[in-house]
Amino acid sequence: MALLLLCVALNLAVSVAVLRCPLYETGQKWCQIVLIWLLPMIGPALIGGFLHSQFDSPRFDPSAGHENEGGDLPPLGHSADGAEHSPP
Question: Which residue in 24, 53, 55, 58 has the most C-beta neighbors within 10 A?
Fold first, then answer.
């Protein structure tokens, strides 16, 4: 019984973390949640580990902002002269 409660708690915790993650689209989040619940012990370990590795990467640092560190490319949606453009 304790193992079942631990499994459900782990699944819930990882599911909530996936839902709160800003890195994934809605479809990706639901696919990961389905995987978590279909593979009760393995799913949360895989998805939780992957989620943790993404947040450790400096590429996904939310505090980094949108500055152009390289200096050669303007941010998405902007031209080199700073004017904002919408995608075609």
Answer: 24
